[in-house]
Amino acid sequence: MTRSLTRRRFLRALTGGGLTLAAAGGLGVAQAQTLGLTSHTRPLPGLRAPVRVAFLSDLHFGLYVGPGQVRRWVEATMSARPDLILLGGDQLDRRADQGAADLLSELARLRAPLGVYGVWGNHDYGSFGRYASVYYGAARDDWSPRRSALEEEFRRSGVPILRNQGVTLRDDLHLGGVDDLWNGTPDVHRALAGAGERATILVSHNPDVLPDLPRPAGLVLSGHTHGGQVRLPLLGAPVVPSRYGQRYAMGWVEGAHATPAYVSRGLGTSGIPLRNLCPPEIVLLTLHPA
Questions:
Q1: Which of 23, 57, 234, 260 is the most exposed place for a label (fewest CB within 10 A)?
Q2: Pair (228, 285) in one structural domain
């Protein structure tokens, strides 16, 4: 009798725990599917007229994200009517043999008066075949030509990738983008060369470049961390993919030379298709003269 009761209680507890975990998992999946637009207004030294910037980071198109979800993000971005649209890296999260045509068919709908630009992130390099993983498969010897080919595909779709490059968007505004910190060779000097006295925006997928910026920038935009993706009440994020832990997890932070930076929570998910207390975001920045 006692043995049977103990077994019954054990099974009831196990079932209850499983249901709790299932409910938590379902809630995490639901949170990962939400979409928010985070708006900020800030001065940017060197600007002579305001500019509205939409920043989309960490789409992670592939394993958990499909064309429909990207379409929602594109439509939400276009409804905000930004002057400039920036992609913060990790656009791709799929095997090298799967290509990017279905992603680019959605991204090609992005339009802005000052253009649409992006940078590469560490998962993009996995998608080139730069390194081996269970998901990406074996590393490929042709990863560098594949990177160049994808850069051309993105450019033809209206999304030039800035890999240690810069572009003057207006007489008062310069945009630079650097290569991925983990798998590339980021060069801030090259990205900001020619900026002169113009206001500057620098896009770096990984915020860990911030403490070692060789020169000041007006504003740095990063992603990569997902804000930790899963955050716990009072404790914050148990895991942040940064050598600096919580320092650059998300939101407004500061780099070398007192450079302001915003670290986006991103849009897609990595590792697991869940989020908790860390909703996806499109960042809309209204920048005005200082």
A1: 234
A2: yes
The pLDDT tens digits of the residues spanning 40-84 come to 999 999 999 999 999 999 999 998 999 999 999 999 999 999 999
220 and 125 in one domain? Answer: yes
Shared domain check, 108 and 16:
no
Q: Is residue 13 over pLDDT 50? A: no
Residues 44 and 88 reside in one and the same domain = yes
Residue 147 CA to residue 134 CA, distance in Å, equals: 20
What is the residue-wise DSSP string for 49-115? Answer: S-EEEEEE----EETTB-HHHHHHHHHHHHHT--SEEEE-S--EES-GGG-SHHHHHHHTT---TT-
82 in the same domain as 114: yes
List phi, psi (to 5°) of 53: -115, 130
Indicate the number of domains in the chain: 2
Residues 70 and 117 in one domain: yes
Q: Are residues 14 and 150 in the same domain?
A: no
Q: Which amino acid is residue 112, in one-letter code? A: A
Give the Cα separation of 216 and 167 in Å (integer).
17
Diameter over CA atoms, the chain: 85
List, for residues 162-171, the tens digit of each pLDDT value. 999 999 999 9
Mean pLDDT of 152-159: 98
Strands 116-118, 84-87: pairing kind:
parallel
